[in-house]
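<instruction>
Derive structure tokens from the sequence
<data>
Labelled lines for chain and fold
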Amino acid sequence: MMRILVTNDDGISSVGLIELAKAVKDMGEVWVVAPATQCSAMSQRISVFGEIILKRETDFPVEGVRAYSITGTPADCVKVAIMNVMPEAPDVVFSGINNGYNVGIDIMYSGTIGAAKEALVRGIPAIAFSNTMNGSFDIIREKLADIAKDLLTRPIEKYALWNVNFPGCAPGELKGILEDRRPEGRSYYETEYVPTENPDGTITLAVTGDPVLKAGEGSDTLAVVNNYISIGKVRSGVLEDGVFE
């Protein structure tokens, strides 16, 4: 039976994590190790000082799944799962389902992608899944398991992971699946920092941003904004260069 590790960057209580565990629980033996709190945009950051608290989550709402939380990062989750939780290393790591697209330059910051890349470091195949911000899971419930099963049958380079993004549309508006999508050359959200000067001389910067609705042909961003499921690869340049061979 395939051993599956499910993790994320939105935290152990996130709806996306629960939906992912539900979607893949019949594919094998599922273990969940996720951050205790929100850890978005941590990329592949790991903890190198202090302590990490590991907790068994006895009330995780997916039957038959063993779940744990840690006070660490998404990449820590993969490391701790392999070294301290699972009796054997997983056959695959599923990361997500992220609350917000992981397309374009955003993949460089993403903790969802960071956890999947940590799996690659350890020679474990990985798939990252993301949804539109605060979106419905109707399409995901219909499509995710079949997509995951299909991707696991395909050859992929040891330095690459699959990156799957689901569009924010109703099932009846879904146009299909676009594969071999390349990352768009900019972030999905154009971040701005709106300043407010405080009486003590400091400045508060409010972080905001609007989504980018235009993107280049063949890109992951263009796929999702046009109501397609986007499938592409994310490569680790360090692993691709053969440092660990």
In short: Residues 24 and 145 are 6 Å apart (CA to CA). The first helix runs from residue 15 to 24.
